[in-house]
Amino acid sequence: QKEVEQNSGPLSVPEGAIASLNCTYSDRVSQSFFWYRQYSGKSPELIMSIYSNGDKEDGRFTAQLNKASQYVSLLIRDSQPSDSATYLCAVGGSYNTDKLIFGTGTRLQVFP
Amino acid sequence: DAMVIQNPRYQVTQFGKPVTLSCSQTLNHNVMYWYQQKSSQAPKLLFHYYDKDFNNEADTPDNFQSRRPNTSFCFLDIRSPGLGDAAMYLCATSRQLLAGSSTDTQYFGPGTRLTVL
Predict the structure, then answer these.
(1) To the nearest whole number, what is the mean pLDDT of chain B?
(2) Rounded distance, CA B43 to CA A31, Å?
(3) Does any CB of chain B come closer than 8 Å to the CB of residue A32?
């Protein structure tokens, strides 16, 4: 069974620090990777997508992908209390599937 | 703004009383999804449509049905809600995958919180 694994946390970091969120996946042929942010009681909101090995930066967010290690991460620089949320990792399967497999999420707490 | 809309945002029903949740989108995406999400769990895919082509997940209970009368609208019917069906129901959309390409981004509506009394 295809799986996406995340540490449930909570991950607690002080304001201004770098938060590092990690995700591993089991399907070696996965091609697309997404990070969603979900505030309590709200729906998931796309933060980043990444398709190629390496780093992709967008503002304070950097996604890192290593397909050989089946590992994807999200770095949040200059963390703010408003970043406190659950971060869901989602992995697209092999080619020709529109389905995503979600991890259970990592809860991030940024304290002032 | 192009978006995914879900109604109602909160739904309270009684045990066994049928309920319908709705989703509409202005993104003109031809793939639509219904997920169930319980507290501290990953969203669980119930079914999805490519246009009107319906795709049920193997473990989706028969109690859950869906309709998609046109590109913009999709409905989730729960025929006889049980206490275990209390959850957040999420609608999402994406562009249809082109042959040989990777899975596209899914965009979520705000969700409907279902309470079963």
Answers:
(1) 92
(2) 20
(3) yes
Q: What's the token pair of residue A61?
A: 């967010």
- Strand partners of residue B17: none
Which of B102, B104, B108 to substitute to test the interface with A, most A CBs within 10 Å? Answer: B102
Amino acid occupying residue B41: Q
pLDDT over 80 (residue B97): no
Burial letters for A37-73: b for 16+ Cβ neighbours within 10 Å, e otherwise?
bbeeeebbeebbbbeeeeeeeeeebbbbbebeebebb
Q: Are residues B40 and A6 in contact, defined by beta-carbon separation less than 8 angstroms?
A: no
Residue B112 has pLDDT above 80, yes or no: yes
The alpha-carbon gap from A95 to the nearest alpha carbon of chain B, in Å, equals 5
Would you tell me how many other CB atoms lie within 10 Å of the CB of residue B83? 9
